[in-house]
Amino acid sequence: MSSILMKTTDLGGTASTHLPRPAIAVIAALFCGYLAVGMPLPVIPLFVHDKLGFSNLVVGFVIGIQFLATVATRGYAGRVTDQLGGKRAALQGAAFSALGGLLYLIAAYPGLSPAISLAVIIAGRLATGLGESQFVTGCVSWSIASVGPQRAGMSMSWTGIAMFAALAIGAPIGMSLYQNFGITAVMSACVAAPLLAAVIASGATSYASPAGDRLPFYRVISQIWREGMGLMLQGIGLSGLTAFASLYFAARGWGHAGLVMTAFGIGFIFVRAVLGHLPDRVGGYRVALWSLAVEAIGQAMVWGAQHELMALGGALVTGLGCALVFPALGVEALKRVLPANRGSAMGAFVAFLDIAYGFAGPSAGLIAGHFGYASVYLLGAAAAMLGAGLILVSRSTPA
User: Fold this and answer.
1) In sequence order, what DSSP letters do the residues of 159-226 get, joined into one string?
2) How far out from the chain centre does Cα 227 lie?
3) Could you report the per-residue pLDDT of 290-316, keeping only the tens digit for each?
4) Residue 75, Cα to own-chain centre: how many angstroms?
5) What would the pLDDT profile of 88-141 be if each residue is shown by its tens digit?
6) How many percent of the chain have pLDDT more than 90?
7) How far apart are CA 329 and CA 391, in angstroms?
8) Residue 358 CA from chain centroid, whole number
9) Distance (Å, rounded) from C-alpha 188 to C-alpha 364?
10) Nearest 10 degrees: Cα torsion 248, 369, 38, 40
11) How far is 237 from 380, CA to CA, in rounded Å?
12) Dihedral Cα 161, 268, 167, 91, nearest 10 deg
């Protein structure tokens, strides 16, 4: 009989067998919940700068503090996932994300002073960071539990598609709501999206967490840091595209900077949808090695582009390369920890990507200021090649 027909539940209502594909409800919940991350991204800077009248430095602080909250709470999210299950972590994360949206909504109340509105916005960013940490760690681990560790790479491919799609769709939705209906509409949507995710998640089947000894978070990091560093080095190239592509295109007199992330997204989603099974089939290190090499080629194309078509082609190739690094190295990271610590491993693993996005932008900005915008993509190519070298070392290190 197929795994679907043989599926049973234990006394706690959790499934005891695996699905051939990641649970659709988990992927749908992750997409809806992550919309609350994407929708406010283009709106909060405008609100803080234009409506409240604060400086660019304050805008950067408000945006960045969510990153700090997310990184700081990855360990807690991993413990909740390991001890109580991915579903519980996802539901808690959705609740904190909805709280963050509610605080955004309060901050937009016209009767508040700019200082109070800013303080409430910051509280909302902290709540959203805590929510994102639990929600993503819970959903990624929950999805893996639904298919079993033998299909972890495929599972991470689909959770990544859900998150990337939510960011790509959420940002323009947020901007459209802001332009047509005002700040209140955007912030109301930031409350509704995680609540919808919670409704979807609450009706989905839970999957039992493996029993066994649970290690402290720092011990888990010590076991998966090589894979995490490889992921972090991959993230530098993507950070350069998101932060400086528009300025790079403008400096060259090119007019289609808006297509950069479209080209990246086409390559990224195509590879994840068509080749997402490769880490499980041929091994994570092999896939990560070739993926990082392809990313380096794409970044070099953007760096050396003499016309915008080549730069857009480089963004496409970068997307092709970045697509499978997360699931490929994630598969290998899971092999280095005991089953009872998979949630903490995923929390620690994703934290490396948070760090990349948090620090790559300012570092690339310093480099661009001294050597020009093109140098950002030379940095991305070098980081990808350094990541490939790290993979060669990691694959020879016993788990």
Assistant:
1) HHHHHHHHHHHHHHHHHHHHHHH-HHHHHHHHHHHHHHHHHHHHTSPEEPPPPS----HHHHHHHHHH
2) 16
3) 999 999 999 999 999 999 999 999 999
4) 16
5) 999 999 999 999 999 999 999 888 999 999 999 999 999 999 999 999 989 988
6) 38
7) 9
8) 12
9) 34
10) -120
11) 4
12) 20
Provide DSSP, 331-350: HHHHHTS-GGGHHHHHHHHH
| Separation of alpha carbons 378 and 385, rounded Å | 11
Q: Of all helices (H) and strands (E), which one includes residue 137? A: helix 114-147
Q: SS3 for 314?
A: helix
Residues 154-194 have pLDDT tens digits of 888 888 888 888 877 888 888 889 889 999 999 999 999 99
Mean pLDDT of 381-387: 96
pLDDT of residue 41: 79
Identify which of 151, 162, 169 has the alpha carbon closest to the alpha carbon of residue 284.
151
Rounded to whole angstroms, the Cα distance separating 38 from 194 reads 12
Residue 210: how many other CB atoms lie within 10 Å: 13
Token duo for residue 319: 């997307």
What rounded mean pLDDT belongs to the chain?
Answer: 85
Closest CA to 381 of 314, 310, 287, 285: 314
Name the one residue in this structure whose structure tokens are 């932060």.
243
